[in-house]
From TrEMBL:
Keywords: Hydrolase, Signal. InterPro entries: SGNH_hydro_sf. PROSITE patterns: PROKAR_LIPOPROTEIN (PS51257). Residues 1-19 form the signal peptide. It comes from Flagellimonas oceani. GO terms for molecular function: hydrolase activity, acting on ester bonds. SUPFAM superfamilies: SGNH hydrolase (SSF52266). This is SGNH/GDSL hydrolase family protein. Gene3D superfamilies: SGNH hydrolase.
Length: 500
């Protein structure tokens, strides 16, 4: 080391001597990218849709989530090529709860609690300061309305504060609608957008699915005023609604992008809870299989099979059997089984779940609880079958898939008819669920509940990092359609899970 320091003065003299004889090479970096909007005009961008458009996350709408919405990410990139301001109807705080007339009408957002035996989502403490009656002035570019179905974007009075109190209007839209009789699409079109995005219709299927198929498939019923909340919208009603929205939004020459709908079976709400989470000791398993419990049920089924009332396949499907150890399937009610109560009232439509059944996320805190606090044997999912709301059966999944297929065919056709960019969100979410997306640091963002980084704690809506992946899919579709070269966003710039 001392020899090296001794050498430094001579090195300095050498450099001085050579200073006049050499010219340092010029250093040049890569040419700066010149972004262009191509054939699109992003100067006035308006986003239409439901909760996915608003930035809904962790079962609530709150300021940080709204800032991390995919339309806000798009608007940030649009600003590179002449895009204007993007106004958001912000909630009052980061709690997400809402009140009307002093009554709580929406709960706070979820956070992950570590106070119990295992981490579990709980509502953040406090009371959200957002009061629906506190009307926001002005107009807003993000017209994503949580809780809205396709046909509700066209409904006059959907933003009525009075209607919210009566249960006929939407509290999120009521906060910033232009009048008590306004429509969502009317307020959006009134801003004369030059470009718009539309990702709408998820709720037309989703409520049926998350409710375990407790609604009705309304295919063939063209009157949505007769629908219950969890019903599936008739495909023709869906198509007519989106066509009217697009006809209105493109009337003055606006261009845009539309996204199709993801399959609900690709979200953590249906992929987290196993069908067989029940551990049993030897004595309990033996009791459940005895004539005092399910043994009598199984014997009754066998008798009816011998009388050809049910087939051998249905007998096998309905026979209930438990074993000591882990991995016992829960017992469920399945309304698609043959009704045998006319022969024997005790032969209800019970069976054990299979891996083809999808347990809803909320069942994780219900399975194993007591149906009767005074009866320690009344264990939900074991001695007491789970009701329809806790599981989406294969028959119900088929109903969902049929509706999804019809809806996405409509969306593809409308994209062509109105010459719009099309985002294949269905394929995107399927890939997120199956393989995930590798990031620049080598990490993988996928659909694993709570730890995958792609979805929030409600198991339905993306996390900010998931929304960034969605934003990039929109950008890719826009660039391909309109010959723009907008950059993507870095998902790692956004959190995969809010921790407080």
């Amino acid at each position: 080391m001392k020899k090296f320091y001794a050498f430094l003065p001579f090195l300095g003299l050498f450099l001085i001597a050579c200073e006049d004889d050499t010219t340092p090479p010029e250093t040049t970096g890569p040419d700066p990218v010149e972004y262009t909007s191509g054939t699109a005009d992003f100067s006035n961008y308006v986003a239409l849709g439901g909760s996915l458009t608003s930035g809904f996350s962790d079962n609530a709408l709150f300021r940080a989530g709204q800032e991390a919405s995919y339309p806000n990410m798009l608007a940030g990139n649009f600003a590179l090529v002449g895009g204007g301001s993007f106004e958001i109807p912000f909630m009052a705080d980061n709690l997400g709860g809402m009140t009307l007339g002093g009554n709580v009408i929406a709960g706070n957002r979820l956070i992950l609690s570590f106070l119990g035996e295992s981490p579990a989502p709980v509502e953040v403490e406090g009371q959200g300061a957002t009061d629906v009656a506190d009307k926001l002035p002005g107009t807003y570019n993000n017209m994503g309305i949580p809780g809205s179905k396709s046909y509700e974007m066209l409904a006059p009075g959907y933003g009525s504060v009075t209607g919210v109190a009566m249960g006929t209007a939407n509290p999120y839209f009521a906060r910033f609608s232009s009048s008590e009789t306004a429509t969502v699409v009317g307020d959006a079109a009134a801003q004369a957008p030059t470009f718009f995005s539309l990702w709408a219709g998820s709720l037309d299927i989703l409520l049926y699915a998350t409710g375990g198929g407790t609604g009705v498939d309304q295919t063939g019923n063209l009157d949505p005023s007769t629908y219950s909340r969890n019903d599936i919208t008739d495909p023709n009603v869906f198509a007519g609604s989106l066509n009217t929205v697009l006809e209105t939004m493109t009337a003055n020459g606006a261009k845009g992008v539309i996204a199709n709908l993801p399959n609900v079976t690709d979200i953590p709400y249906f992929t987290t809870v196993p069908h067989n989470p029940i551990p049993l000791d030897e004595a309990t398993a033996a009791f459940l299989n005895s004539a005092e419990a399910y043994g009598a049920y199984n014997a009754g089924l066998a008798q009816l099979q011998q009388l050809s009332i049910i087939t051998e396949d249905e007998l096998a499907k309905r026979t209930i059997s438990f074993a000591p150890g882990e991995g016992n399937a829960v017992v469920i009610i399945d309304e698609d089984l043959t009704d045998l109560t006319g022969f024997n009232p005790a032969l209800t439509n019970m069976r054990q779940a299979t891996e083809e059944d999808l347990m809803v996320l909320t069942s994780r805190s219900f399975i194993g609880t007591l149906a009767d606090p005074n009866n320690p044997t009344s264990i939900n999912g074991v001695a007491v079958p789970l009701a329809d709301q806790w599981v989406l059966t294969p028959e119900e999944q088929t109903i969902v898939e049929n509706a999804l297929t019809a809806y996405n065919q409509t969306i593809a056709g409308l994209a062509t008819a109105y010459d719009l960019a099309l985002v294949d969100a269905n394929a995107l979410l399927a890939e997120l669920n199956t393989n995930g997306f590798q990031q620049a640091d080598g990490s993988i963002v996928d659909a694993t509940f709570a730890t995958g980084g792609g979805f929030s704690l409600d198991g339905v809506h993306p996390s900010p990092r998931g929304y960034a992946i969605v934003a990039n899919a929109f950008i890719d579709a826009i660039n391909a359609k309109y010959n723009s070269n907008l950059p993507g966003v870095n998902p790692l710039d956004y959190t995969g899970l809010y921790i407080d």
